[in-house]
Amino acid sequence: MSRAAVLERAAAHLDSGAFEAELAARVAIRSASQEPDAGPTLQAYLDQGLAPALGALGFTLQVLPNPVAGAGPFLIAKRIEDPARPTVLMYGHGDVVRGQDASWTRGAGPWTLTREGDRLYGRGTADNKGQHSINLAALAQVLALRGHLGFNVTWLFETGEETGSPGLAAFCTAQREALSADVLIASDGPRLTAERPTVFLGSRGVVNFDLSLDLRHGAHHSGNWGGLLRNPGTVLAAAIHSLVDGQGRISIEALRPPPIPGNVRAALVGLDVGGGPNDPVVDVDWGEPGLTPAERVFAWNSMEVLAMKTGNPEFPVNAIPPTAKATMHLRFVVGTDVSRLGELVRAHLDANGFPQVQVSVGDVMGATRLDPDNAWVHFTLASIERSTGAAPVLLPNLGGSLPNDVFADILGLPTVWVPHSYPGCQQHAPDEHLLRPVARQALQMMAGLFWDLADFRPEITPARAPASAAGV
Questions:
Q1: Where in the chain is the domain with CATH 3.30.70.360?
Q2: Is the link from the previous residue into 128 a cis peptide, with omega within 30 of 0?
Q3: Mean pLDDT score across all residues of the chain
């Protein structure tokens, strides 16, 4: 009984085809939460896709309703070996995006796991069924070899992540005691590259806001009225330029983050972004000047135009349109106070001559970032390096967004994410896939991590202070 033996078991679990069989059964459950009639399949994923495997590993199970009417249920599974030992909270989501069946060009469609070369095709293979299946299988290998874990585990599965995690915050608030733990260790999102194991410690926050302009009733002939009537498209374009300039630099000082912390900057030194066969070429002169591409996407804020419309782009006519609308998108890091976003944008537009432009702010997902010097971070990095022979990439936070603010702020946990996908996995698109070499390595990494947890002696303290900035 040794650490090397559990890594061998983890690799054999993939090589034998057992992992693919487990994942195939989960992919076959059409748990697409974006479909209006998804309720029965979301329930089926918890009851059929997860409960038997968790029960076989000695977990007690509780399926609970969502506090949001009509939203998918939650599953809490617990294996408590010794209350004096650390408790790890793990997370996964059993829902997927729509299958987009007719658009698949590889495999056998979204609901049948198909191996082609090193790729396992199927909806959810990357996001998130494949990732939590790896973690479940790795736990199973440790239990099979050692007979116990040496720590406690609580699993939380939701079934609405792909629709914005409705009810997750309220559920975790109500279930704070049941979800009490010392750390969150979970898997979602991509590695930096397929070849490099990656750890990230939080995520950028995200919020959308609409800018709209309604100047008059109906369009008016551009020959008769051009030069006499204010054009809402022109005005809105100028208003947007006042918020974020032609090089992507945010103009409102309060929506720019504080200086990048030294240990965050140090973690990003030498990291290249992109470079994969299907990745776009990074625009080196775009965004905040003086920052590396890695710093711009992992340690800074970005403001984007997601959509903009005036007139009828499909069938333009020679008339001045009456209205214009744009949907803006702010990704932000810890230290940015977005609680006053609407107020800040309103004041900026007024000061720059755009009082007619209306502002409407959507829901906010907060920014989180665990201190890279946290003991759980050092433990995880050392364990992965021991398993793979190479130091993993450390990202202080993901460039995208996850509901990590629920775990960091509501539950007060240090959060460590170990992703098992890669940037080219085509999640949310046709031909989504998991790479078998990544899955094999991930099974070994997680088995090694769970093996090492039995000997890790962190200082167990009451819930720590929130990891995100006040006001976010």
A1: 205-275+296-365
A2: yes
A3: 95
d(CA 43, CA 40): 5
**What is the pLDDT, as a whole number, of residue 458?**
79
Are 428 and 97 in contact by the 8 Å Cβ rule? The answer is yes
In whole angstroms, give the CA distance from residue 290 to residue 334: 20
Q: What is the pLDDT of residue 279?
A: 83
- The tens digit of pLDDT for each residue in 177-222 reads 999 999 999 999 999 999 999 999 999 999 999 999 999 999 999 9
- CB 140, CB 446: distance < 8 Å: no
pLDDT at 244: 98
pLDDT, residue 137, reads 98
pTM to 2 decimal places: 0.90
Q: Which CATH number fits domain 205-275+296-365: 3.40.30.10, 3.40.50.720, 3.30.70.360, 3.30.460.10?
A: 3.30.70.360
41 contacts 111 by C-beta, under 8 angstroms: no
Which fold does the domain 3-203+367-453 belong to in CATH? Answer: Aminopeptidase (3.40.630)
